[in-house]
Fold each of these.
Amino acid sequence: MMKKALIAGILAWMLGSSSTHAQQTKKSSILSDSIWLDTQGQVINAHGGGLLYQHKTWYWYGEKRGRSQSEGVNVYSSKDLYNWQFEGLALSPSQDTTSDIAEGCLMERPKVIYNKKTKQYVMWVHLELRGRGYAAARAAVAVSSTPAGPFTFLKSFRPNGNMSRDMNLFVDDDGSAYHIYSSDENMDLRLAKLTDDYLSPTTQDSLLFRRQREAPALFKNAGLYYLITSGCTGWAPNQASLHTSSSLFGPWTLVGDPMTGPNANKTFGGQSTYVLPVPGKKNTFIYMGDRWNPKDLKDSRYQWLPIQFKDGQVVIEWVDNWNLQQFNKKG
Ligand code: DGJ
């Protein structure tokens, strides 16, 4: 009995001390491709994700993955972009087998935006119905009154009847929001303006270009819209493209591959997912991508890199270890 208690005591002490240790190692930089732990020392599981800044806090929403399965949408919070606290499962698959989000469905590339009029946090995800591979090609919408959720699933649909796979959301300066999505078996990239409550697409929905692209990440700087996309090669990396336009609905001009550094022509082995405008800093954006591990999706890594504007061109250079101080440098 005594022996058992002693062993249990030692185990508890070891577990306690290791998590305390994990909590104490505060991070102050971004190391793409390495394993990222949350403040409890657990591996961060938030792939294909997006960020939202609210109340001086960043919220990071991403796919919770098992080895191959999709397990919903996780959310983490941070005050500094380096140290992330796990907030829980923001959107859970449903136990109800008749639900569109029944366990076994695929939830990919979740993005959350805040609607000032309705005071709701609105999540959109690429949804595939359970047991149907990638055939359903739908978008799903969920809402919450708090950023960490849990979110309530509202509905899923094909926007204006169009197939909808890889996607992103974008809120323009006037508060209008847009859904950008790969359609027609990924041949088309489309953009739909959302209704004022951000819950549905309007019929202002049109083809941006037909070039077989996915993983869209859209941002705006000094009145110009920038769009980073990948090719369509499943989980395998390929070459990124940058398009620009002075108007969201186009015409979009192909600029080329904005990546530089080792393995740049394969997007450093990764794929775009989001571009984060850094609040309070002009011309300051962070490129976010995933380095997928198709053999064990939960082990996929994160690639976050500073976006540089050099002679009016967007340049995304591989940097091993960096932090926000990078943006204070001239040049
Ligand atoms: C590429 C997409 O960008 C990912 O989100 C995922 O759908 C994979 N294809 C599946 O092969």
Amino acid sequence: MRIGMLTGGGDCPGLNAVLRAVVRKGVFHYHDEFVGFLEGWRGMIEDKSIALDLDAVSGILPRGGTILRTSRTNPSKRPDGIDRCVAAIDKHKIDALIAIGGDDTLSVAQKLHEKGIKVIGVPKTIDNDLGGTDYTFGFDTACNVVCEAIDRVHTTAEAHNRVMVVEVMGRDAGWIALYSGIAGGADVILIPERPFDVDKVAESIRQRHERGRYFSIVVVAEGAKFSSDGLGAPILQDMGKDEFGHAKLGGIANILAREIEKRTGFETRAVVLGHIQRGGSPSAFDRVLATRYGLGAIDMVHRGEFGCMAALRSNKIVSIPLKEAISKNRFVDDEMIQIVDGLFEEIGEKEAAGQ
Ligand code: F6P
């Protein structure tokens, strides 16, 4: 078969591992040929592609980013965008398309499927918030990067008697904040799922310092929301939006640091980790997971399971309808929140995990 591939949306450590696994199994076991469309859906609209053979994917397993590059181009927002994708598929005589991306990229894949294109999805996002799958690759690497950053912040916080507020990615779901916060031994973890009361956050830090501690670490997801000012809205970097309608989040750590210092009198600093979390080499876990997703996707192509996404369920790669995966985000659930609650002292009502 002749198979097209693309990587769309924010990049993610492990994308190259998926491409490599698909091409290797496709060539060795099914005698497939591959075309890689460049820069996500933009490459289809503008007809930019490369041949993907064994040489092209050689040596890319440990590399971050994606050799196909990526973009947040949304064909539905371009005149004839979807039709141009269909035309590119026809022109390159593509029998099946593997789209690797998050809910935005996969929602376009679903539209193409509805137009009769044979599409398979592979889930990708460091945020780990895609529905239908237990884990997305890239999340583990991001958590390791954040955990290391928290460890480093710890020593400087301790040396200066400071409160350090570490802002991590996580637009709608607080998985990175939660996992890396637990792993890094944070004192307060704030996630989008639970708007937080800044007075209570300050009080929990004050009480910790009363118990003899002289520094604290707060981990806050970029999409976390203040409840105390009644706003409950995420903090935005600017008013710009991408083609899928997402605002640019960021800046909550600076605001929070100021408010904590005002309320406690403790010197407080903010650290924004930003795209450092998405860059660099994938962890061993993500290399294996991404490889499994790639192998699963090429097998799905040959089983004819189109309109479906490879998903991880109970540590097995299974095939689920794309529609199911894009229908809802996967949020931090109550069980996980309770794990964090168990780690912190209660002050009046529950405090530290973002309430
Ligand atoms: O890919 C998801 C994500 O990592 C979000 O957590 C974050 O808000 C966004 O990407 C940042 O995107 P960009 O790279 O376009 O600034």
Amino acid sequence: MKPVILNLQNIAKKFVGNSSNAVDNVCLKLHKGDILGLLGPSGCGKTTLLRIIAGFEQPQTGTIEIAEKLVYSPELFTPAEQRDIGIVFQDYALFPHLTVVGNVAFGLKKQPKQVVEQRVSEVLALVQLQGLEKRYPYELSGGQQQRVALARALAPQPQLMLLDEPLSNLDIQVRLQLREEIRDILKAAGTSAIFVTHDQEEALVMSDTVGVMYQGHLEQLGTPEEIYTHPASRFVAEFVTQANFLPAHRQGSMWSTEVGCFQFAGKSTANNHDSAELMIRQEDVILQPADDAALVIRTRRFLGREYQYCLQTPSGKELHARTMLDTLLPVGTKVNLAIATDKLRVFPHGLG
Ligand code: ADP
Ligand code: MG
């Protein structure tokens, strides 16, 4: 088992004047060399949790250990600069009056000149910025500036890197490219990291483990595959997989909805209830045209490798379906849904 680099126990933080906790009883462990993607909607407490780990913010309860050393408990506060952490923010935060080299060398000040030069050139090679050493931040693109910020944070070889939405200010093309590169760079450096994002695809692509946050608490912690295929709550299902949800009533071994009955064989806490929400993933449905079907195709969008259909239920609800290109049906067609039994999920009513 890899050593534990970060151990959070029961971290809670309430800001003065707020009615609820910004971070609510969060426990998690991060192992050496792993990347944890912290995923959740705006305002769910991601930045606050990162600032608590970094030592910029004090929680009211809990303990924090970094590399098996206690850095926070209600009786102990280790200041940020002694926590051995590297941080990359959304807005780069480079020193405008320093060159690329000056920025990267900033955290290495107390070491001999030769050691600093050697380390700066190593990390600049790692983030592929050789040749730009003498430039100033204003002479760099957004993506290049973020690489400098990454190099600056990596240079002192911290135990843990914290990245708070580092790609949010970049164009989509740069974002897609840089997310793969950041993962490769962190892996090449062997650095453990927490990568905060509100983008579910980014979290799935970047992370070894994904932590989904909602209203201050950690809803689920698991591999990207676990989170996607076995969401632990309706919130995770909706936020991560962008699935459809339909109200359903139990009828024997079937769940009945306004668009038909579906068999669900799996385990669910909703199995004790007579009514629940059926989760139907966009990519799991097969559209079967039939004259007496309850659903009508309202729009069809060509997405290159697939079609996305918008379907209307009798009550006026919209469902989305994504199909292979061989399912080409005109707008106005009435369709039934067929779904493999093992693909369905049932959740109790309500978010949580
Ligand atoms: P996220 O990064 O996920 O968008 P934040 O951690 O920034 O979320 O915020 C979590 C909650 O805490 C929000 O409701 C936000 O308004 C509140 N909050 C964050 N910082 C402060 C602060 N300094 N004072 C008061 N409330 C704050
Ligand atoms: Mg934030």
